[in-house]
Amino acid sequence: MTITNTSVIKKTLLIFLVIAGLIFAKAFLIPLFIGSILATLFIPFSNLLEKYGIPKVLAAFICLLTLVLIMSGLVALLAWKIAELVNDVELIKQKAIASGVEAQEYIFNHLGISVEQQSNILKQEQPSLSSIMQLTFSSITSLITNLILLLAYVFFLLYYRKHIKQFFLKLAKPAQQQEMSEILSKATHVSQQYLFGLSKMIVCLWIMYSIGFSILGVKNAIFFAILCGLLEIVPFVGNITGTTLTVLVTALHSAPLSVLGGIVAVYGTVQFIQGWVLEPLILGPQVKINPLFTIIALVVGELIWGVPGIILAIPLTAILKIVCDHIESLKPYGFLIGEIEYENQENTLLTKLNKQILKLSKRK
Questions:
Q1: Top-confidence residue, 351 or 231
Q2: In b/e form, how buried is each residue of 308-343, taking b as 16+ CB within 10 angstroms?
Q3: How open is the CA angle 334-313-155, to the nearest 5 degrees?
């Protein structure tokens, strides 16, 4: 086997061009990709509606309306629980001020910087009110625009899904159209399975966190359970962020160390159950990316597209693996991304546990 410098340079240059293109076109691609993945979730529902004689355009609109209702329900649920925290805002404010005073005294005692000097430094670093208002207005405008675009993409992708499938089939040679159809079917299936599995996972996390936080006596336990569950859409980072916020707010309410330690223990227990019971049972064998490339995908996604990149990293990497597995020259990359099969370690306890869970899920 011969690897030339020219081939390495070409492949490296191609990777950098692809990344540069993704960064440059992120305003266009992020809503399109999120809309595409959400559209795959409603394909079975749309097919069912069309099977009963409902026109395609009306079926797509019903799917869109269902998505809007689900999103509105989640927002309403969070708003309802946040409203319960309004009474605690004053207490949190007082605690924050007290903590700030203690921090100023610590800086003065150990670094010799007076309170007045600290205040001047903070004033110099604080952005002006006009810039804050401008940034807020810009963020809200961008959010509304992207939301409208996302909903439009979901509707039209559902309506034109067969037309788009025919386009991809026409790209392939006649002898390869069957394989192209299989790639599209598997890519759609893995997106559906990931979203369905993630939804089930979030509900299970809501239940487990609610039980754990309620037993510990955490104030507004249901809200923090919902928050920790919803943040699961950002793998690894989300649940840690939710748990950290829970610990910080609970600490501001002067909770004892036993409760704070209990929150961390609940988090560890839930993560163990999630990793070794829920994920094999709910997500199944389709979304198979090894932990190393899961982390790499999340890091690259964040570098390219920020938080949306983290959310899209797992399903897009799973789709990329499917494509690689069906193209001969890319099969080594699909193998590299996929999970390792431990042929010589079948007797380990964790392997046996996973096998039993998969058998139970297949029986169901």
A1: 231
A2: bbbbbbbbbbbbbbbebbbeeeeeebbeebbeeeee
A3: 110
Asked if residue 31 lies in contact with residue 150, where contact means CB atoms within 8 angstroms, the answer is yes
Q: What is the pTM of this model?
A: 0.76
Tokens read off for 272: 């163990």
> Can you give the pLDDT at residue 348?
47
CA separation for the pair 339, 323 (Å, rounded): 16
Alpha carbons 109 and 105: distance in angstroms, whole number: 6
Q: Who's near 316: CB < 8 A, 6+ residues apart?
A: 33, 297, 301
pLDDT at 55 over 50: yes
> Do 191 and 287 form a contact (C-beta atoms < 8 A)?
no
Q: Measured in Å, how far apart are the chain's first and last C-alpha atoms?
A: 48
Burial (Cβ within 10 Å: 0-12, 13-18, ≥19) of residue 209: buried
Q: Which amino acid is at 266?
A: V
The single-letter DSSP state of residue 277 is I
Under DSSP, the state recorded for 328 is G
Tell me: the pLDDT tens digits for 236-251? 677 788 888 888 888 8
Q: How far apart are CA 105 and CA 96, in angstroms?
A: 14
